[in-house]
Design goal:
Layout: H1 5-15, H2 21-48, H3 53-73, H4 77-84, H5 91-105, H6 111-118, H7 123-146
């Protein structure tokens, strides 16, 4: 029996679970906002402790990366992401999770071939293309400023 595209679309729609878009948007917004709030609170704490602006700018991303990596290692980050969806993809925490997750998954294969080889499976292309894009943008900026 042949099914038409229209019949197939109906079957897929019937079999697919419905998405709770509004609640997903709200959860992503609130948890992503909470991550940003934690970053802002850390910034204020570092300033309150009398640290210079340069030191604060260095400590803030390091702190957020450490917290995201720790939560990933404790298998908490994935539970948060399950409810927050894209809200956990705040760039620095999402990137830390993307680096740590494959390393944890392949740690039983050893430090070199497991962790070392797997740690950049997801993050490697981001680093490579990010570096390439920054070089291209830098050259374009340099050429524009020649005139």
């Amino acid at each position: 029996m042949q099914t038409s595209k229209k019949q197939y679309s109906k079957m897929v729609k019937k079999a697919s679970p419905s998405s709770k878009k509004i609640s997903n948007f709200i959860k992503a917004f609130l948890i992503g906002g909470l991550i940003c709030l934690i970053g802002q609170l850390l910034k204020e704490l570092y300033s309150f402790l009398g640290l210079s602006t340069d030191v604060t700018k260095m400590l803030l991303p390091v702190s957020l990366i450490f917290i995201a990596a720790l939560l990933t290692g404790l298998k908490v980050f994935d539970n948060i992401a399950k409810h927050a969806g894209a809200g956990t993809l705040v760039p620095i925490t999402g990137f830390a999770n993307a680096v740590v997750s494959p390393a944890i998954e392949f740690k039983n294969e050893g430090w070199v071939l497991g962790v070392g080889a797997s740690i950049f499976k997801i993050a490697g292309p981001v680093i490579a293309y990010g570096t390439l894009a920054s070089v291209i943008y830098g050259v374009i900026y340099w050429v524009i400023n020649l005139f």
